[in-house]
């Protein structure tokens, strides 16, 4: 059996059974990709809050979930101007 140091799972946004598995049950670290908009940041924090809440209710022990924010997709418009600040 091969072992991997890192496995990345791309999960769809939103509240689904598969999303819960990918954000609460499986990960040791969750990467939160966001754009330079308040809505994107707020949505990412909401997903993180749901993942932590769900993980805390699991019947099996999992270590504390580590979250890493990752800024992404800075376009030429408003996001670019905000990124320059």
Would you write up a description of this structure?
The protein is an alpha+beta fold and 85 residues long. The protein contains three helices and two strands, in the order H-E-H-E-H. Strands 1-2 form a two-stranded parallel ribbon. Helix 2 links the parallel strand 1 and strand 2. The longest helix has 19 residues. The mean pLDDT is 80.
Outline of the structure:
This protein is α+β, with helices and mostly antiparallel strands and 85 residues long. It is built from three helices and two strands.
Query: Strands of the biggest beta sheet: in what spatial order?
Result: 1-2
Principal-axis shape: globular
Structural class: alpha+beta
Calculate the terminal CA-CA distance, rounded to whole Å: 48 Å
**Low-pLDDT stretches:** none
Tally of strands: 2
Biggest sheet descriptor = 2 strands, parallel
Radius of gyration: 15 Å
Strand content: 5-15%
H-E order: HEHEH
Number of helices: 3
Helix content: 40-55%
Average pLDDT rating: 80
């Amino acid at each position: 059996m091969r072992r991997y140091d890192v496995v990345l799972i791309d999960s769809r946004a939103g509240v689904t059974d598969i999303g819960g598995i990918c954000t609460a049950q499986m990960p040791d670290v969750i990467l939160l990709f966001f754009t330079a908009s308040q809505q994107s940041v707020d949505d990412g924090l909401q997903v993180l809050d749901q993942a932590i809440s769900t993980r805390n209710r699991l019947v099996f022990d999992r270590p504390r979930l580590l979250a890493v924010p990752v800024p992404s997709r800075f376009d030429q418009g408003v996001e670019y101007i905000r990124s320059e600040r």
